[in-house]
Amino acid sequence: MRIATAHLFLLLAVPLWLVSARVPLLIQCAQILGLLILITLVSYWTVWILRRKVFLKLVDGDGKAVLITGCDTGFGHLLAKRLAKEGFYVFAGCLFSDGDDARELKSSPNIHVLQLNVTKEDQVELALEEVKNNLGSRVLWSVVANAGVQNSGPVEWQTMARIRSAFEVNVFGVVLVAKRFLPLLRYSRGRLVIVSSGFGRDTLPIAAIYCMTKHACISLADGLRRQYYESGVHVSTIEPWVYRWARL
């Protein structure tokens, strides 16, 4: 019993002695680590403030209008409210222009809600005419092709109608909106923004069809960027990864 107790004492005492002998060193390491973290945080916020206040020139929304598709929920809905708050006049294309989300947007004096299903040519044409008729002295400064649908699951389990539907919205809808509104952007020397996805660069096997559509969007943007460079139209892609949003 005494031998076991002695062994237990040694097992506890030796590690404690080793730790206590190195406490000053551990304290110094912790201090250095804390100082590095503090320097990193201060540097980050300093760069952020300098970038926003000195180097980043925010665009004045006065006299500028923006068309955004897919404003019922998600990125489009939030962007419409943010740009309206920043002074832009927003044409918010909604799949359900009488829905609760669209009614929320209508409460802003800087937002004009449009009925816009990007797969319907007649609705895109009507939206174009409505934008022209309500621009007033403004110019259409930007078009944000945001409308999109998800598609996941093994290809052999999906109907061709479901696969075509993903391409109709995510690809041909983008092409149609860009095609009809590019003349206005060329006049204003504005910008076309296409919301693609990080999966337009890397393919997720279970969402191969969705990834195909987003690859197509990036390719379209690359081509349009070169086509309209001389016209002064800027073409960009936004490529988010996974975000939580409300589905229609």
From TrEMBL:
Residues passing through the membrane, by range: 31-50
Under what name is this protein listed? Answer: Dehydrogenase, putative
Keyword Ribonucleoprotein part of the UniProt annotation = no
Q: Does the keyword Cell division apply?
A: no
Checking InterPro entries in the record gives:
NAD(P)-bd_dom_sf, SDR_fam
Swiss-Prot/TrEMBL GO biological process terms: steroid metabolic process
Task: Report the superkingdom from the record.
Answer: Eukaryota
Annotated EC: 1.1.1.105
GO molecular function terms here? all-trans-retinol dehydrogenase (NAD+) activity; oxidoreductase activity
Keywords from the named record: Membrane, Oxidoreductase, Signal, Transmembrane, Transmembrane helix
Q: Give the signal peptide, or none.
A: 1-21
SUPFAM superfamilies attached to this UniProt entry: NAD(P)-binding Rossmann-fold domains (SSF51735)
